[in-house]
Design a protein that fits this description.
about 210 residues; 434 Repressor (Amino-terminal Domain); elongated
């Protein structure tokens, strides 16, 4: 049976899975930072207060969690068993390395060994790896030191946040605005940096950003 305690435990487990506090999860979803506080889970007369379906939809959209993932959390006990026993690790690559030759294959996958590894706080595939942001060119969305989880093999579409590498060795994180056989149009995350319309033959690879450590 679906219970009040189990629903709130699933929300707490989802926040923990994505390395967030309950307040951090609420803020990321565009809600009041106190929306998921324990004090808000009961009304003033002591009756259970349930999260709205809109709030649940917003936290899943904000984290990238699937409905199936959330339902699995609902189906577990409201304790530490709701979290995976061991999180997978993925290679951590600096943007400078990403732009240099010899570190990636033609599809944008890291090659070789000796990479630093980081725990992945989100669902991954064998293709996933982490990129560490360097500099302020991606402000205000991504800060220096933020970690981006990318999947080179993931399908990309208009509006996706992507990391792109050009044949000249330039690596950038932007929003995909348009992709045709002739070119790819990228919108800059930082308004101080120009948008880019890059000929298709100058694109080495495109990888979709599936999670960020903000």
């Amino acid at each position: 049976m679906l219970s009040h305690d189990r629903v709130w435990a699933a929300i707490d487990a989802l926040a923990e899975r994505y390395s967030l506090s309950a307040s951090g999860l609420a803020r990321r979803a565009g809600l009041d930072s106190t929306a998921f506080n324990k004090s808000k889970r009961l009304s003033s007369d002591g009756r259970p207060r349930w999260p709205s379906t809109e709030s649940l939809a917003k936290i899943m959209e904000a984290t990238g969690a699937s409905l199936d993932e959330f339902m699995k959390l609902l189906g577990t006990r409201p304790d530490a068993d709701a979290l995976p026993a061991q999180r997978p690790t993925v290679p951590l690559v600096g943007f400078a390395q990403a732009g240099a030759g010899g570190f990636f294959d033609d599809s944008g996958f890291p090659v070789g060994h000796g990479w630093d590894l980081v725990e992945l706080p989100a669902q991954s595939t064998a293709a996933s790896y982490a990129l560490k942001v360097q500099g302020d060119s991606m402000l205000p969305l991504y800060r220096n030191g933020d970690v981006l989880i990318v999947e080179p093999g993931a399908r990309v579409q208009k509006g996706d946040r992507v990391v792109v590498k050009t044949t000249a060795g330039e690596v950038m994180a932007k929003v995909l605005s348009r992709q045709t056989e002739k070119s790819i149009l990228l919108v800059s995350l930082n308004p101080e940096h120009p948008n880019r319309d890059i000929p298709a033959h100058e694109i080495e690879w495109v990888a979709r950003i599936v999670w960020a450590s903000q």
